[in-house]
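so my prof wants the structure for this chain in the tokens format not the other one, which i didnt know existed until like an hour ago. anyway here's the sequence
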Amino acid sequence: MAKETVLVVCPGRGTYNAPELGYLQQHHAGAEWLARFDAMRAEAGKESLSALDGAAKFTPAHLRGDNAAPLIHACAYLDFLRIDRERFEIVAVTGNSMGWYTALACAGAVSPEHGFAIADGMGINSQRHEPGGQAVLVLAGEDWTVDPALLAEVEAAMARHGVLPSIWLGGMLVVAGPVAALDGFEKGLPTLPRPPMRLAGHGPFHTPLMQASSDAAKEQFPVEWFGQPQVPLIDGRGKVWRRFESNRRDLWDYTFAHQILQPYDFTAAMTVGIREFAPDRVVLLGPGETLGGAIGQVQIALKWLDITSRSMFTARQGEDPFLIGMGRPSQRSIVIP
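here's what i got, hopefully its the right format
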């Protein structure tokens, strides 16, 4: 029987929340790589992921970058290892924002140890930036499509207030900038499907305000850690990094310069992944499933599999899901032996 082809998506910050507490314990207890990651944390004098994940209750400590980033990376990478390779062929890997570091490890462009070290280190490093933050704007209506006129009004407001695009996320847009700029911008917005949501504890990621983080990352993580991906790797511009075609210095430079300082276009990454690789399914690694809506919105915008509305997407997901969220128990079993 021919294998089904899958595009794997690695989640970013904001996906390990109270409902995900215990994810590692539930799905990956005793996993060899979890023990390795815990040992790496212990060597650095940090609390183990197993201890954080096994806490009696969810606390603000779980949301701090130095804990959230490695927790999310470990959940996603260990999920990746569980995908049944006898039934599924992974044709490409991508990620959203911080998920790029996980995608590097999943695609084999860096080793598992180095992938974890990057995610763990950048959880701290990402706190080095000029003052500022992020806000999420929901642009898609109930049908999960975006009105071009509304987008044009939002972009005009961004230009007026000096607010920058941070992440293009299907029918959502994450913006970033100095706090005062965000305050003025939010007051001058047209009516959106939902009010803007400021992201607590987040810096002005994917903007030039992160220059200190970029500089520190280049000092901390050597070029020699990078190699050629073993499967195609789609970055936050929609560029595909392929085996035998990728230069390690270029990949290192993208990871710690452009990827930190310029907008991350997850919409473009998913568009290229779906159009160029035409996967039978998309597999969204855990924890959580907050990217599911954005992926569905991209599918609708592309009219992929003739899906043109939220209701059609939901109906297809109930019958034979194109998108499999490993953070959703009912779908996780589809890809695990």
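also thought this was worth mentioning. The chain has 14 helices and eleven strands.
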